[in-house]
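User: Predict the structure for this protein chain, please.
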Amino acid sequence: MPLILSIDTSTTVCSVALHQKETLLGSYELFTERTSSAMLTTLISDVVRHTGHELAQLGAIAVAKGPGSYTGLRIGVSTAKGLCFALEKPLLAVNTLAAMAEQIRAVFPANYLLCPMLDARRMEVYCAIADTTGRELLPTTAKIVDEHSFDEWLAEHPVVFFGDGAAKCRALLSQHANAIFPDLDIRPSARTVGQLAAQAFADNQFEDVATFEPFYLKDFMVTKPKKAVV
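Assistant: Here is the predicted structure, written as structure tokens:
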């Protein structure tokens, strides 16, 4: 199984990891307000070099495709594509929410559902729902949360809400007996991007490097300046 370099810049956490098959060889994470291309390039160089390898030995580049921060995703994807072109390596893309769910998938019983959440605007979150086998039940969506947003799921199963979007939903959803908010700090991470990328590699689920774009989920919102009153 080849070496897979994974990148996740979906949020303010900038992380890289190096896997061989599903075995983690090394990883670095920075918790910063903003990711930069230079910062990411340094982490990539360090994780490859400090594990005793060279960039030329990589078998594939994996990236968290989103959803998440528009700027962060753009930096991560452009860096991954640049490496693929320069090294002539294939590109793998992993859903950010799926990689978050992978972090706790083995912790909960089979009848539980997992709902990773990333903070969006106001009471909006990016979320998805999967079972503990990793099977997607609710595709990634942007949802404005109120006390009834997940009634159909909570009526049938315990649902675990986690990620930075879950904090602002706790007051609304914790009234449900089946709503679970674990005290776990689950953030997007290249570690689980790499785990899922290993399976994607085995299944030949490669992206077209030339045309691949991040999964922004929503259009980037730009506030237009007001016209001056003449």
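The chain is about 25% helix and 30% strand.
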